[in-house]
Amino acid sequence: MAFLSGLLTIGLLLLLTGHLFSITWLQQLHNDAMIAAAVMFVMIGVMHLATPRKLTYMIEGWLPYALELVLISGVLEIVFGIGLLVPAARIYAAWGLILLLIMMFPANIYVAVKQLPAPGGLPAKPWYTWSRLAFQPVYIAWIWWCVR
């Protein structure tokens, strides 16, 4: 839900900025949503690289090379996030992010089933960890809508 809050906040701030300063490009919700997604994925990717050990618990014990997988996912989130802003790479970046979200889904299921804390110090309450699963398709739809 923190990720969704970031998407919505950044997107709405960009939309407001577009209207306040008459920036036509930022007055289009589609563009604001794309920039918001790029910013959020780059931020999450940087977090994966800066503090990878805080995320390995999500896959340790059932996937090998947990640290390496967290680092790789961080790099991919940054690369694909930036790719959303490059017109020639946008569709490939979107597909990359969608596939990455699908591949990360089992880790989120594991966190919910094992009643582990959500990443980033977010609540470990079952209602929160299970509700996070419902937002994964929302993020996929958001990305697809941005590049359609």
UniProtKB/TrEMBL annotation:
Membrane topology field: Multi-pass membrane protein
Keywords, in A-Z order: Membrane, Transmembrane, Transmembrane helix
GO cellular component terms, A-Z: membrane
TM annotation in the entry: 32-50, 62-86, 92-113
InterPro entries, A to Z: DoxX (IPR032808)
Source superkingdom: Bacteria
Localization, UniProt: Membrane
Listed PANTHER family: DOXX FAMILY MEMBRANE PROTEIN, MEMBRANE PROTEIN-RELATED
Record-given protein name: DoxX family protein
